[in-house]
Amino acid sequence: MNIKSRDSKYLKGACMKYNLLEKTKVSELVNALKKKYRVVGPKEKENLFVYGDIEDAGEIRLEHKPPILSLKKYYLPQEEQLLAFKFKEVKAVPVEVKKENLVIFGAHTCDITGIICLDHASSIEPRDSNFHKRKKNVLIIGIECLRPCDEHATCVTMDTHNPKGGFDLMLTDAGNNYIVQVNSTEGENLINEYKFLFKESDAKSEDGLIKMRQEKEKWPRSLKVKTDDLKKTVDSGLKHKEWESVKARCVSCGNCTNVCPTCYCFDIKDDVDLNLNNGTRSRVWDSCQLKEFAEVAGGENFRKDRKSRQQHRLLRKFSFSVEKYNRFFCTGCGRCTRACMAKISLYETMNNLVKE
Amino acid sequence: MSETKKKVRVAFFDFADCEGCQLQLTYLNTALLDILNSIEIVNFREVMHERSEEYDVAVIEGSITRPHDEERLKDIRAKAKILVAYGACACTGGVNGIMRNHTVKAALETVYPGRKDKMETGLIRAVDQVVKVDAYVHGCPINLNEFAAVLKGLLLGALYKVPDYAVCVECKLKENVCLYEKGQICMGPVTRAGCGAWCTSNGNTCYSCRGLLEDMNKQGQLDILEKHGVTVEMLKDKFSLYNGCKLEGNK
Question: Which end of chain A is less enclosed by CB atoms within 10 A, N or C?
Answer without folding.
Answer: C
